[in-house]
Design goal:
Blueprint (H helix, E strand, L loop, with lengths): L12 H4 L2 H22 L33 H5 L10 H10 L4 H23 L12 H5 L6 H22 L9 H5 L2 H4 L5 H18 L10 H19 L4 H11 L1 H9 L7 H18 L8 H22 L1 H10 L2 H12 L4 H23 L5 H33 L5 H6 L18
Length: 441
């Protein structure tokens, strides 16, 4: 911050100052004025008539003349706001000190004024918000598109500027509480299709739901019984919300904030469904989730068989919706192993097509390995040598696409564990399990 004149966001003082400032100064002025008049007030019975400039020169009992007391408005003028207000912060502070304003009060006034100034500047930084698209996938879809790195950096820079200004003006290191939810609260934007009153009611229902679900985690990770209770609570939440929304609003709410929609946006990251594809897939997935839940935690063999059959039917429905090619893309892009491979390629600055090439190499290598294993003309030694050759050729091809560093990173992250299976060697470590997404409200 330079030593040049620091200007405030200055308009008409009586319109821009908080009531706190006016109240503080008014109280100071009244107190001083009261003390002044009390010390100079003549005895009762010898007061000036209203509006006169001096007492009449009359002789009081005992031959003594009362002293003349001139009633002026000097005190009022001393505390007129215009004598204190200034568009320059430093002059403004000096004026406050000149009327005897306590330092603590000056700090409160200046900090409140600076906060107001920077709050206006923060609002000016905000970009025009785009409508939330419920079919957008990944973390941006999960968080309602609120994680804008440029906007966050600009707000941090503004906070540093405000802190520096207060340090220059008041000589104190101002510490402000950081509101983490200010930058990461997606609900307002995700529910912008609803009037404010209905948004508030939904948030109240969510808060109550969250408080009840905390008990499921009090003894560590929830078990099957806890999960079932949470799923029942989720159904009750949707029933309550359906009661305050129109059918059209409730459909949009489910596409936006239901556990099914949140889970789909996370698992389909990279697939990039269209709005209509998301809508159609959501209907199939929601029906499945409503019947079996999101986790599949059940030790009952009959229930597991029923779920497996329903899963096969769900996949067939999805294939019908998407068509053969898009369904193949969906299977690849939602596979946990492909996601890991895509991340490696992205970190190497490579396009998604590079990850797809390696993924296709995996399929070709596995098919070749199966042919070798089924070839009855080979003995054990020949079969092992052939499998090793398939693996070696596959590794050379992957290195060509990802580069040596990329392939090394791929192996280090346990993404290339499948190569051990191709060569017939024991798998040193099991493939990482695909996580189950439980989208808490």
């Amino acid at each position: 911050m330079s030593n040049s004149t620091i200007h405030r966001n200055y308009f008409h003082p009586m319109k821009t100052k908080p009531l706190l400032i006016l109240s503080l100064l008014a109280n100071v002025g009244l107190a001083v004025a009261f003390a002044y008049f009390a010390s100079t007030r003549p005895p009762s019975g010898a007061r000036a008539a209203a509006g006169s400039t001096a007492l009449e020169n009359k002789t009081a009992p005992g031959g003594m003349k009362p002293r003349a007391v001139h009633i002026t408005n000097l005190v009022a003028k001393s505390f007129n706001w215009l004598t204190v207000e200034s568009p320059d912060y430093k002059e403004y502070i000096a004026n406050l000190r000149s009327i005897g304003c306590p330092e603590e009060t000056i700090r409160d006034i200046i900090i409140a004024d600076v906060n107001k100034l920077f709050e206006d500047r923060k609002k000016a930084l905000k970009k025009p918000e785009k409508a939330f698209k419920f079919w957008e996938t990944g973390m941006q879809g999960m968080m309602g598109g609120m994680m804008d790195p440029e906007a966050i950096a600009a707000q941090q820079a503004l906070a540093g500027e405000k802190k520096a200004l207060i340090r220059e003006l008041l000589g104190i290191d101002y510490q402000e509480k950081i509101n983490l939810m200010e930058a990461f609260n997606p609900f307002e934007r995700m529910l912008d299709f609803l009037p404010t009153g209905k948004q508030n009611k939904i948030m109240e229902i969510y808060q109550k739901m969250q408080a009840e679900q905390v008990s499921a985690f009090k003894n560590g990770a929830p078990d099957e019984v806890d999960i079932k209770k949470m799923q029942e609570a989720q159904k009750d939440l949707e029933k309550q919300i359906a009661g305050i929304l129109t059918p059209e609003e409730f459909e949009k709410y489910q596409l936006t904030l239901s556990q099914t929609a949140m889970g789909m946006r996370m698992t389909m990251d990279g697939f990039g469904p269209s709005e209509q594809e998301f809508r159609d897939l959501f209907k199939v997935q929601k029906a499945f989730d409503d019947q079996f839940g999101l986790t599949g935690m059940s030790g009952d063999q009959g229930e597991q068989k029923k779920r497996a059959d329903a899963e096969t039917a769900r996949q067939e429905q999805m294939k019908t919706i998407l068509g053969d090619q898009r369904y193949a893309d969906y299977q690849r892009d939602t596979d946990y192993q492909f996601k890991a491979l895509s991340k490696v390629a992205d970190r190497q600055g490579l396009p998604k097509e590079s990850a797809i090439k390696v993924w296709d190499m995996k399929a070709i290598a596995e098919q070749a390995a199966n042919r070798v294993r089924s070839d009855s003309s080979l003995n054990q030694e020949q079969r092992q040598a052939a499998l090793q050759a398939v693996r070696a050729e596959t590794e050379r091809s992957i290195s060509t696409v990802l580069g040596d560093d990329g392939f090394g990173s791929y192996k280090k992250q346990n993404g290339a564990w499948w190569l051990n299976g191709i060569s017939g060697q024991p798998v040193n470590s099991a493939p990482p399990p695909q996580p189950t997404v439980i989208a808490n409200p």
